[in-house]
Amino acid sequence: MEVINTIGRRKAAVARIYLNDGKGTITVNHKDYKEYFPTEQLQYIVEQPLNLLEVNGKFDIKVNLDGGGYKGQAEALRLAIARALVKLNPDDKGSLRANGFLTRDPRVVERKKPGQPKARKRFQFSKR
């Protein structure tokens, strides 16, 4: 099997992954993913597409993560892994899409507007 290369994005985070046959190691920025994502919740997010298709432990994944926070990075990685699994076996696309793992979440931070302290907050109005 050749190396499969995909990309996933969420908010400001970008995950570039390289998936090939192996023992199931996930390396994120030269660290184990359990060391990079210390909480159980983030580790669960990363493992979701692998657990759904029951292929956890069959592929080695090397990840370059950049930008955003931990949560956005974990969700970007989930999207990249799901896209790689679809490239590997197109028959899995239906189940991954049904669980929402192939949808790029378009929500990003709203920009700050001029004349306001934040995006939506206004300075206090004074009539007199």
Features:
5 strands, single chain, 128 residues, Ribosomal Protein S5, domain 2, 33% helix, alpha+beta
Write a structural description.
Strand 1 and strand 2 (13-21) form a beta hairpin. This protein has a single domain, classed as Ribosomal Protein S5, domain 2 (2-Layer Sandwich). Helices cover 33% and strands 23% of the residues. It is an alpha+beta fold and 128 residues long.
Strand order of the largest sheet: 1-2-5-3-4
How does the overall form come out from the CA principal axes? elongated
Q: Please report the total strand number as a whole number.
A: 5
Our count of domains comes out at 1
CATH architect. name = 2-Layer Sandwich
Could you estimate the helical fraction of the residues in percent? 25-40%
Distance between the termini: 73 Å
Structure classification: alpha+beta
Question: What characterizes the major β-sheet?
Answer: 5 strands, mixed
Q: What would you report as the Rg, rounded to the nearest angstrom?
A: 18 Å
* CATH fold name: Ribosomal Protein S5, domain 2
Q: DSSP helix count?
A: 4
The whole-number mean of residue pLDDT values reads 94
Strand content: 15-25%
